[in-house]
């Protein structure tokens, strides 16, 4: 499975949650598959989906799912010890690990070689790290939501992008819509 196929499968689960989605094609895919006001699409700041998601989880009680990528986490590795030492029970970091920088043309990342993000998350202090194969993502995500403890999911899948339109909503509109949805949830 590629990322967009996983997003299609988990869209019904994501619909009721606060979601912070990684910059670029992941956000375009989620937006095209199932746009929701409870989705925050990053249109900038590569690497910071997990940091924004963590901040949001710390400041309100509802479950927050940060959908990140292997390339983005590798760009912001300091996020793992920050999560490991501070994540509250309502935070789930789902790293879609396709072994490539998808949004810039599928150049390979080191997770396709010797680098193990799940091992790095554990070493950084994340207590509940689950390694998931693409087809099992829905069940694993549902389990993480119901367990109500901080979870890092590393979802292994194939490299590749779906052809989706760019998001034409202004970033300010995305932010305002999301903030209203957070306040109402
Ligand atoms: Mg990737």
From TrEMBL:
Keyword Cytoplasm: no
SUPFAM superfamilies to which the protein is assigned, alphabetical: Thiamin diphosphate-binding fold (THDP-binding) (SSF52518)
Pfam families linked to this entry: TPP_enzyme_C
UniProt KW Transcription regulation keyword: no
Cited InterPro entries: Sulfopyruvate_deCO2ase_bsu (IPR022494), THDP-binding (IPR029061), TPP_dependent_decarboxylase (IPR051818), TPP_enzyme_TPP-bd (IPR011766)
Alphabetic keyword roster: Decarboxylase, Lyase, Pyruvate
Source organism superkingdom: Bacteria
Residue ranges constituting the Thiamine pyrophosphate enzyme TPP-binding domain according to the UniProt record: 39-155
GO biological process entries: small molecule metabolic process
One Gene Ontology molecular-function label: carboxy-lyase activity
Protein's name according to its UniProt entry: Sulfopyruvate decarboxylase subunit beta
Originating organism: Shimia haliotis
Species classification: Bacteria, Pseudomonadati, Pseudomonadota, Alphaproteobacteria, Rhodobacterales
